[in-house]
Specification:
Elements lengths: L25 H16 L3 E6 L5 H11 L5 E7 L5 H11 L9 H17 L3 E7 L6 H10 L3 E2 L2 E2 L1 E7 L1 H7 L5 H4 L2 E7 L4 H14 L11 H11 L3 H17 L7 H15 L13
Helix pairs in contact: 1-2, 3-4, 9-10, 9-11, 10-11
Length: 284
């Protein structure tokens, strides 16, 4: 609705993950480097954690788009309270493996045959488990057992576990010691620093068609955005979208600090929670 008013071709702050809008902050660049390193190693587990809205899914999709599909067959599942049997079925479906039979042993055999055929053809499989904090210890142990599949000295399946901070705590369990020994890299995505807010916002604006000739956000708006969202990307996207919509409806050519604070207050009142917060030291 507001895109053409601000000289944009598409929505710059959509909430759905889109690798085209990936911003390489210091934390996200480091996490992506860890994941690329893990993919290059071709074995073991990579663990990526971060708060809700930190950009984990966008990071994963950015990685997957950059992989050589002729060498790596990647599949992604989202864990939603899957038990061990459901997890195995979900993995097979993600790789496009038709399941025959009804027993777990048959499914395991079918999966191993698929992975072995890939390896024999000079390719390998990468499994990304998103929202992995929803897995129970039995299901995580199931993933560890799948990592035992080998053809000669080559591991047949590598797994990335991506989830909220609870995942890291869960992996510290004594019963998961064997899996921890197979984690070759791990990282945690934090919020953006204050000095990354303006580059992040302008990066997304440029990808949405902004020429840069006329400022859309005033200089004093960026600190307010950071204060109101704690630098969490998804919160920033929500706040900026609503601020641009409000600016369009009120014919404001530029979003200023007061607009950000007002919009943050409105969002907090509407949603009854604190996806964005009004900085306590600020006033309208």
């Amino acid at each position: 609705m507001f895109e053409s008013y601000y000289g944009l071709q598409t929505a710059p702050f959509q909430l759905s993950p889109d690798p085209d809008f990936f911003y390489a902050s210091s934390g996200h660049s480091s996490a992506l480097a860890y994941m690329k390193f893990g993919a290059y190693q071709g074995e073991g587990f990579i663990v990526v954690t971060g708060e809700i809205g930190a950009g984990k899914t966008t990071l994963v999709r950015t990685l997957l788009e950059g992989l050589d599909a002729d060498r790596i067959v990647a599949a992604q599942i989202v864990s939603t309270q899957l038990d061990a049997g459901d997890l195995l079925r979900a993995i097979c479906m993600a790789f496009g493996i038709p399941l025959t039979g009804t027993s777990k042993a048959q499914w395991l055999g079918t999966l191993e045959a698929f992975l072995t055929a890939l390896c024999a053809a000079g390719r390998r499989a990468l499994l990304v488990v998103d929202e992995a904090q929803n897995l129970g210890q039995r299901e995580i142990e199931e993933l560890r057992m799948l990592s035992n599949f080998q053809l000669g000295s080559h591991a047949l399946l590598q797994s990335f576990l991506v989830g909220q901070p609870e995942l890291r705590k869960m992996l510290q369990s004594k019963s998961l010691e064997q899996l921890r020994q197979r984690v070759i890299a791990s990282c945690h995505l934090g919020p953006l620093a204050l000095d990354e807010v303006q580059p992040y916002i302008e990066h997304r604006l440029r990808h949405a068609g902004w020429s840069g000739e006329r400022a859309i956000f005033a200089d004093d708006a960026f600190e307010a955005i950071h204060d109101c969202t704690d630098g969490v990307p998804r919160r920033m996207n929500l706040l900026c979208t609503r601020a641009l919509l409000s600016g369009f409806l009120h014919s404001r050519p530029m979003v200023e600090k007061a607009d950000i604070l007002r919009t943050s207050k409105e969002l907090n009142a509407e949603l009854g929670e604190v996806p964005v917060r009004l900085a306590s030291s600020s006033s309208l």
